[in-house]
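Re: that backbone. Tokens:
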């Protein structure tokens, strides 16, 4: 079986260049808009942000919301992703 590299110079895949600070958007999926809002407010305290409803699953069990805020570096962007993804009210963060 042929091995296919996932990243690196040989594969031609590179990290995208992101110029910070920049406006960043996360899509957060969970079971409750209220619970998602509480999770976001817990981790994004003093920084202004926008949290808007996006979609509801066909069965109505899951909701998604768009979180938009300014991130000042890759560490902050990834740390917020990890915090939100680890919150019990959140199923998926994109």
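Recovered sequence:
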């Amino acid at each position: 079986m042929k091995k296919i590299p996932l990243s690196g110079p040989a594969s031609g895949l590179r990290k995208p260049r992101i110029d910070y600070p920049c406006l960043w958007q996360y899509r957060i999926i969970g079971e409750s808009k209220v619970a998602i809002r509480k999770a976001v407010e817990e981790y994004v305290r003093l920084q202004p942000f926008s949290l808007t409803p996006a979609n509801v699953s066909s069965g109505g069990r899951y909701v998604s919301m768009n979180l938009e805020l300014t991130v000042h570096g890759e560490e902050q962007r990834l740390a917020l992703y990890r915090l939100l993804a680890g919150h019990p009210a959140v199923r998926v963060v994109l």
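Residues 22-93 form a domain with the Alpha-Beta Plaits fold (CATH 3.30.70.260). The chain has a mean pLDDT of 90.
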